[in-house]
TrEMBL record:
This is DsbA family protein. Keywords: Coiled coil, Disulfide bond, Oxidoreductase, Redox-active center, Signal. InterPro entries: Thioredoxin-like_fold, Thioredoxin-like_sf, Thioredoxin_domain. It comes from Thalassomonas viridans. The keyword Cytoplasm does not apply. Residues 26-70 form a coiled coil.
Amino acid sequence: MKSTKLLLLLTLVVTITACSKTNTSLEQEQKQEAQASQQTESQQEANAAILAIRDDLKQLKREVAAIRQAVTDIHKIAMDTPEPTAKPLPAELALNLDGNDPLLGSEDAGIAIVEFSDFQCPYCKRFADQTFPAIKKNYINTGKVRYIARDFPLDFHPQAQGAAVAANCALTQGAYWQMRDSLFSNIRDLSPERYQQLASELKLDLEQFKLCSSDKSHIEEVTEDQGLAASLGISGTPSFFIGRIKGDKLVNGRLIVGAQGYQTFSTVIDSIMAAP
């Protein structure tokens, strides 16, 4: 009897133990399946991302190829296009030395610089701020160079012509160069009201300044300078003719275009002075 009970007990224990092992195995299998499913989803997402990157790379390669082809085409066009013939500089350029144009320097100077400028041009301001002071110190103040300022307001600078007239009206009261500095200092805020304010700050006769500003003859003077610049082939500002003074003319002129540094001007001036 005891043997029978013991056998039943062992059978129950084995059964319970076996059931326990089976449940555990099932849970592990379920976890493994879940993990495998997650890994599969992650792998699918990674694969999709890789495919997207590959597509992007293919698109980039196509775009780079198109850019390279465009550069090749542009280069071919540039090589096939003949260079424009440069307009020769005039043998001589008439200088207005009677005071109608702003000028600096000694009457005995042998070299002249004729500037064509625009008061709304940032490159003209850069030249006026960075290069002109050294030219003035080393060449104008020392009697070597006479400097003549002329106007070339560009069409796409709507305030440039009015600013040129304001500067020329200041010239009639002996304050051109002071007004020039003030205009460049206010290059982003040019207007008739500003010109009046600057004239007041320079202690000019405001009534005379107003009458001058409305005088069409001063606009005509600016227009004449524009026509002269165009006839010389000038299309941008600032531009400069540098040459020897012969009577009331500048001869053997050299052209400098843009806000070049002091060394560029110094080299040209010195070479002209050294020439026989």
